[in-house]
Amino acid sequence: MRHLIDPMDLSVEDIDRLLNLADDISKHPEKYREVCRYKKLATLFFEPSTRTRLSFEAAMLELGGSVLGFSSADSSSAAKGESIADTARTVACYADIIAMRHPKEGAPYVASQFVDIPIINAGDGGHNHPTQTLTDLLTIRREKGRLDHFTIGFCGDLKFGRTVHSLIKALSRYDDINYIMISPEELQIPEYLKKDVFERKGIPFREVEKMEEVMPELDIIYMTRVQRERFFNEADYVRLKDSYILDMDKLKNAKEDLSILHPLPRVNEISVKVDQDPRACYFRQALNGKHVRMALIMDLLGVSADED
Ligand code: NCD
């Protein structure tokens, strides 16, 4: 049984296979319209979501399957005190594959220990978000044509941002990537990433506080929202929330082929004026998320398109 809990569950070969399949799906959607007929995806979302849940659901529907699930903990038996294990065991009686988002780190892993259908981690607390990572990798490959040899700046809440943590882990297997971490001191990447990923693999990285200072060097900038729901007190959030706002002025010194990524939702960290700039990739990125989730669902369910 295969699950997707951590981005490192995927080898570089797995990633290539999934991204290639996602490309084929977007080029020839008609080939894939029935491949998941009679299969059901359950989306168990104990935390808010727009893109992740809806792109999972759209993905399954476009593969000819069906979807069921809930979109908040309040509307599930979690509100009555049910454990993750019991919820997962129950849903496994009704569905063929589960995508789960939970505020507690490790919850999808716990669920995976109790069921014999694939579990996909759709975000666990401040920890991992492997399907956003697949989305980001597909976006980088589509925008840049490669997954190596570039300078990437991660900007904003690098402490609590699970999409940042997962993407850094996944990218650490590719060659010649320069990492620049742009954040206030209090929102720097966690120590475990510095030690277990960068230091252990001998990968250099820089930490800076000002985005202007490094803008001309960047091939990719990965913007993030300050993760209000993971702060221990509101005053710290209010103090840090406007640390970075990417606007047209800050892009003046940027490369002409810079790619601006953001997992979304955006609060105010990218000015809406930037949306018109061809370097803004974040809505294309949201679309890529559907294609790569279609590929992942097919892969975990072991289905393929019949070749004639
Ligand atoms: C992200 C998440 O949930 O971690 N959103 C997403 O899945 N696209 C980013 C965020 O909430 O800031």
Automatic annotation (TrEMBL):
EC number: 2.1.3.2
Binding site for L-aspartate: 80, 162, 225
PROSITE patterns (UniProt xref): CARBAMOYLTRANSFERASE
Keyword flag Transferase: yes
Top-rank EC class of the record's enzyme: transferase
Annotated Gene3D superfamilies: Aspartate/ornithine carbamoyltransferase
Keyword terms: Pyrimidine biosynthesis, Transferase
Boundaries of every Aspartate/ornithine carbamoyltransferase Asp/Orn-binding domain copy: 150-298
Domain (Aspartate/ornithine carbamoyltransferase carbamoyl-P binding): residue spans on this chain: 2-141
Subunit structure: Heterododecamer (2C3:3R2) of six catalytic PyrB chains organized as two trimers (C3), and six regulatory PyrI chains organized as three dimers (R2).
Recorded family membership: Belongs to the aspartate/ornithine carbamoyltransferase superfamily. ATCase family.
UniProt name for this protein: Aspartate carbamoyltransferase
Organism: Anaerostipes butyraticus
